[in-house]
């Protein structure tokens, strides 16, 4: 049985960030459990053609680990994955990584005040559990009648089969979200025929992407202040756009750019009508591409403005009766965002799962801690998602809060911190009261922001500046604090030395 002061689940951006901040706080007795053989999280898994970030590169990184080497304004997947790997090495956290260690079950031990984990690497215990599994992890496979018996090749975009040659094939793409918008233009020139099944038209804005010249990268390396200035400028620009998410009338003006983009690239009025959304920009995830619309105008592409009804043999049939005989089906159908699989693996002291507590509507205090699950911290948790800025903004706010809690647990000899039900309820009521005025709830669409009960359990209805101010410092008054029960190990290791790594840079 391996015991740790802290266990972190997942070695994507969340897990790596948690590991770095733990070391900076002087914690050495921790491990990062990763079920795969490499770090990277969603940027390890998603290797589909054209995979890239839809947030400016300077923002898509830790503020304390800026990267002057981005070669594009919007970085592509290989560079982001390399950045995460290099950052982990730079800050000395690779020694804490345990690969091939999948968490099968985690349960709070109410008697001993620790978490007990069953993993593929053996049983483990930890005083504190940090879940960094993220919402863009498990692919969502739609329940389409006949899909399981399709005689050709089927794969999800996040599990791209690079061994399957698409050249000359007839391909059906199901879904038109962020992934499809990126990979459709890449595969269109290769395939004989591409059938795009579009349940809902998407707003697609022009993408201000460009190659970053070597001279500019040299400038960023030589003058770190220039890089910080660029980050601040891009943050300010995205936050200005974020005002529209809270005042939808602004986004209705911005969406004119989307209409102009559509009209300029799609001349066929029938196709253009099929591609025109009937809801307000921002109601679904904001998409950007300069090549998606042009790809759909090519002679080997058919856009089926319909959901898929069934697959019968090699034929994919839409809800409108249209059909296509294909050799391969690619699912661009997204992820289990709010029904995250980790909720079925984490249990309270009575043996009830997180999923059972949530009953389809995830709730947490400040998106981070959950009543009844002491010493558990969720990264990129519910009610923290935004439609306009970087996940790293959210992550760093949560890490500041989580590490502050860990620091207090260690220094004050606490054994358990459990958020009070009133605090969790008050926060979630406040969020739900603010959401109706945002485009997330009032934009007129059905999105992954809404859970199975129709409740928006994903979105943060305010600015990220307010998020950073709100989720900054652990407040013990909002928690039930327990002292170490008799016979348990001290949560603090004597003689722990502070980390000797760069401290976060201020904004």
Structure characterization notes:
The protein has 2 domains: 244 residues, 3-Layer(bba) Sandwich (FAD/NAD(P)-binding domain), CATH 3.50.50; 159 residues, FAD/NAD(P)-binding domain, CATH 3.50.50.60. It is built from 14 helices and 20 strands. By secondary structure, it is of the alpha/beta class. The C terminus is likely disordered. It is 30% helix and 18% strand.
Alpha-beta content class: alpha/beta
Largest β sheet strand count, sense and barrel closure: 8 strands, mixed
Low-confidence stretches: 488-507
Helix content: 25-40%
CATH topology type of the largest domain: FAD/NAD(P)-binding domain
Query: Which architecture name of the largest domain does CATH use?
Result: 3-Layer(bba) Sandwich
Number of domains: 2
Q: How large a portion of the residues is in β-strands, by DSSP E?
A: 15-25%
Corresponding CATH superfamily of the largest domain: FAD/NAD(P)-binding domain
């Amino acid at each position: 049985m391996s015991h740790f002061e802290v266990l972190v689940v997942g070695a994507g951006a969340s897990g790596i960030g948690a590991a770095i901040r733990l070391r900076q706080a002087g914690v050495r007795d921790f491990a990062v459990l990763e079920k795969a053989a490499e770090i990277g999280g969603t940027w390890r898994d998603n290797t589909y053609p054209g995979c890239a970030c839809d947030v400016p590169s300077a923002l898509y990184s830790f503020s304390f680990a800026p990267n002057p080497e981005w070669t594009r304004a919007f970085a592509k997947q290989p560079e982001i994955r390399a950045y995460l790997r290099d950052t982990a090495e730079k800050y000395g956290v690779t020694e804490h990584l345990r690969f091939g260690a999948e968490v099968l079950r985690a349960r709070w031990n109410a008697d001993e005040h620790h978490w007990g984990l069953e993993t593929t690497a053996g049983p483990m215990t930890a005083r504190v559990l940090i879940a960094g599994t993220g919402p863009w992890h498990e692919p969502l496979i739609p329940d389409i009648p006949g899909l399981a018996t399709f005689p050709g090749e089927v794969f999800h975009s996040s599990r791209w089969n690079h061994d399957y040659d698409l050249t000359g094939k007839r391909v059906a793409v199901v879904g038109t979200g962020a992934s499809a918008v990126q990979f459709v233009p890449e595969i269109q020139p290769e395939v004989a025929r591409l059938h795009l099944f579009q349940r809902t038209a998407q707003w697609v804005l022009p993408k201000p992407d460009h190659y970053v010249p070597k001279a500019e990268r040299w400038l960023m390396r030589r003058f770190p202040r220039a890089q910080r200035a660029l980050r601040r400028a891009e943050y300010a620009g995205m936050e200005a756009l974020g005002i529209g998410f809270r005042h939808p009338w602004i986004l209705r003006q911005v969406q004119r750019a989307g209409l102009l983009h559509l009209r300029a690239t799609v001349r066929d009025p029938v196709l253009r009508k099929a591609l025109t959304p009937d809801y307000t920009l921002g109601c679904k995830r904001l998409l950007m591409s300069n090549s998606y619309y042009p790809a759909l105008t090519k002679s080997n592409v058919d856009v089926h403005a319909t959901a898929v009804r069934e697959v019968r043999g090699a034929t994919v049939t839409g809800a409108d009766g249209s059909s296509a005989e294909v050799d391969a089906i690619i699912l661009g159908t997204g992820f289990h965002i709010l029904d995250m699989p980790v909720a079925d693996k984490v249990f309270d002291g009575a043996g009830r799962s997180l999923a059972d507590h949530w009953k389809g509507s995830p709730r947490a205090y400040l998106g981070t801690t959950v009543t009844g699950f002491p010493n558990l911290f969720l990264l990129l948790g519910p009610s923290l998602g935004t439609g306009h800025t970087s996940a790293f903004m959210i992550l760093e706010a949560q890490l500041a809060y989580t590490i502050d809690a860990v620091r207090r647990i260690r220094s004050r000899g606490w054994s358990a911190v459990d958020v009070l039900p009133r605090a969790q309820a008050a926060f979630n009521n406040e969020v739900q009261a603010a959401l109706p005025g945002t485009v997330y709830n009032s934009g007129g669409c059905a999105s992954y922001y809404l859970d199975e009960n129709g409740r928006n359990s994903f979105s943060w209805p305010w600015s990220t500046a307010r998020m950073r101010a709100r989720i900054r410092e652990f407040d013990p008054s909002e928690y039930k604090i327990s002292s170490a029960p008799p016979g348990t190990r001290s949560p603090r290791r004597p003689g722990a030395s502070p980390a000797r790594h760069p401290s976060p840079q201020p904004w």
